[in-house]
What does this fold into?
Amino acid sequence: MKILVTSDLHLSDRIWRHYPIEGDSYHSWNQIVDLAINHSVDAIILAGDILDKQQNLSYPIQNLLAGIHRLQTAAISVYYTQGQHEYQQRPWMDADPDTHWLNHEDFVTPTGWRIVGCDYKDHDNFQSFLSSDRAKSADILVCHQVWKDFMGDIGKPQGEFADIPSNVKVLITGDYHEHICQKFGDLIVLSPGSTHMRSISEPEEHSVFLLNLSDKSNKPKIKSIPLVTRRCLHVDTRSFPDFKALKKQVESFLEYAFSYATENKLPEDLKMPLIHLTHSVSEMDLMRQFETTFNFLGHLFFRQVTSKSEDSLNVIDFLDAQDRVNLIDCLDQFVDEKAQPLIHSLALSLLRANDDQEQALHRWIKEHSDSSSK
It folds into this structure.
C-alpha cells in the first residue's frame, strides 16, 4: 500500500503581511495532489496545519476542497489530523464528509498496519493520549506537536520521542517546518515539514514522503519527493569586498531563479524570488543601494547586525512577520506554573492561538471541563 505523507500546508492567500507574496501554498498543494495521482497512491495523510487560520475567507477553503475532490476522483482516500493553526471542534476538512478524521477514526491497511492519529493537544492531554489504549494499539502514529527532540525547550514542547509507546514503529508529525526522516531507537520519525517557506529563516527546499507499506514484518520503504517552490537567496555583505562583487553574485542568482522558474513552469506569482541580505548597522548606504538596484527583481528582506564582526545570533530582522519575540518562552517569568497551573495553562493556550483567541478559549474550557469531570 502506498501513502503520500505531508503536513503544514498552511493554505492561505498571503504569507507575510508586508509583502505581496501570494500563491505559494496553493501551488504546493496542487503539486501534492498531482504527485499523489501520478504515483497512484492509495491514500494521503495530512498531518495538521492544513489551513493557516481557524477563521478563513473563501479562497483557502475552495483550494482545499478542490484538491480533495481531485484526490477522491482518483480513488485516493484522504486522512488527516488538525494542528493548532486550524483547530476547530468540527474541522474544516469535515466540509467534505468523505474525508477521514484520524482523531476519531483509525485506519487499518490491507496488510494490517494500524494508523492512529490525534489532533494537536496541550502537554497534559497529549501525555494522556500517549498512555491510552488507542496509542498503544498503533503501528503508525500521526500527530501535530512540538517535540523537545526538535525544538529543545523552545515553545513549551508537549513531548519527546522517548514518550512514544514501544509498539509504534513510525511517528508522522507535523508542526516542525523541516523535512526530516530519522531513527530514534527502533522508531522511525517522519517530519514532512512545511510545503513552502513560511519564514525567511526556513529552508528553501521542501518535499513530501512516499510511504510504501508491505507486510508488517517488513520495514516500510520511505522516499522523499521534492516540490517545486519559489527560490530564495541568503547573502551577507561580510562575504564580499565591495558592492560590485555583491551585485555580481545576486545577478547570477537571479539568472538561475529565472531559469528555474521557466523550466519548472512556476506560476507568474511565484517567479519573483526572495533575497535576504545581512548587513552591518554601519552599511546603511550600501543597504539602500542594494534596495534601489534589486527592489523590483526580488522580494527583499534585510537583517541588520551591529558590526562587521558580529555573529548571526545578534541580529534584527525587519519586515518578517514570522520572526517575533517568543512570548511563550517568557511566560514562566510572569506566571508560576506550579503555583497557578490554571492561569498558566490558559495563558499558554491563548499565546499559542494564531488569530482566534476565542476558539482557543472555548477549547481550553472544554478540555478542563472534561478533565474535572473524570
About this structure: Residues 232-318 form one domain. The two ends are 40 Å apart (CA to CA).
